[in-house]
Amino acid sequence: MTVAPETSPELAAVREFAAGDRVTGFYLVTKLETKPKKDGSLYLLMELQDSSGHLDAKMWEGFESIYNEAKAGDVVKVAATLDRYRDQPGLIISKIRLATEDEVPNRRAYFPHSALSAVDASLLLDEIIDSISDVHLKTILEAVFGDGEFRTEFLESPGGKQWHHSTLGGLAEHTISLAKLADKLCEHYAELNRDLLITGTLLHDVGKVFELNADVNFDYTTDGRLLGHIVQGTLFVEKKISELSHIPAETRKQVLHLILSHQGSPEMGSPVKPLTLEGIVLHYLDDLDAKVNAFAQVKAKTPDGEDFSGFIKLMERFFYFKPLNGDSNRSDDE
């Protein structure tokens, strides 16, 4: 059977193949370099990606042509066998070539995608904006998300490089999740200004549209590295507000404060700490949603049957995944 991009086995499934199983498919190159063997000669080391994940691949010989032709961001067709070294899966490539543009017209198909589609996210976004009663806050939101070019990028952008919501559409998924959480919290804490908090959830990460790109992999733009999404988002929203008439100064200040303070402290990237109740709540909701999603991402990458993840440097701990068995009367010793 001829293998096409759409019929290539997903790398998440390939990882579970037995050693020696053959694999033929189209995959995105995210890393390409040569490494020395023990005898001093070189071999090719690649990292391949599709929408389900990554997998390292090696080619021991005959790789000179593809090494000179290919670069990170290209899609290649490979014929390989699965190898397991120290129980870690990898591919040993026997044949490789560049895919043609006719075969792969859209490289973004090889990136992970949010389970929330752009169409559904757009509808939910409009519903949330429509629920805002404060005319000034609603005007700001309509100015931001009524910008067609920005809206398209927002719906397709990742929510992070790799820690949380690192999928195409992840930014919209994270944003809408925060808005839903905020809505429920406002039912419990009557002292919260619902419209202001919801506005903060929708605007807090808009700068990630400018901070991150998905050309080869999820990575930072030059401006993203130099300025960061908090500054970029504040500048973008401030510009939108400046183009509107009759936005009260206090509304402007509190909206911008939510964006500037949502990461909690200068040590975490915010130039100011949250000083308003809505700012404090937004910070903790943002942190909660990010960590829950990161936990799920780490769990998905951990082999089935493993109780613990690898060590998570960012959180300085392991994650534990073993579920309760439903029998609360049974001890571990029984």
Strand order of the largest sheet: 1-2-3-5-4
Q: Count of helical segments? A: 12
Distance between the termini: 52 Å
**CATH architecture tag of the largest domain:** Orthogonal Bundle
- Low-confidence segments, given as residue ranges, are none
Main beta sheet = 5 strands, mixed, barrel
How large a portion of the residues is in β-strands, by DSSP E? 15-25%
Compute the CA-based radius of gyration.
23 Å
Structural class from helices and strands? alpha+beta
Characterize the overall form: elongated
List how many beta strands DSSP finds: 7
Average of per-residue pLDDT values: 91
The tally of structural domains comes to 2
CATH topology of the largest domain, by name, is Hypothetical protein af1432
Structure description:
- The structure is a single chain.
- This protein is of the alpha+beta class.
- Helix 7 packs across helix 11, helix 7 crosses helix 12 (277-301) and helix 10 packs antiparallel against helix 11 (249-261).
- The termini are far apart.
- It has 2 domains: 5-108, OB fold (Dihydrolipoamide Acetyltransferase, E2P), CATH 2.40.50; 111-296, Orthogonal Bundle (Hypothetical protein af1432), CATH 1.10.3210.
- The chain has a 5-stranded mixed β-barrel with strand order 1-2-3-5-4. Strands 6-7 form a two-stranded antiparallel ribbon.
- It is built from 12 helices and 7 strands.
- The protein is elongated, with a radius of gyration of 23 Å.
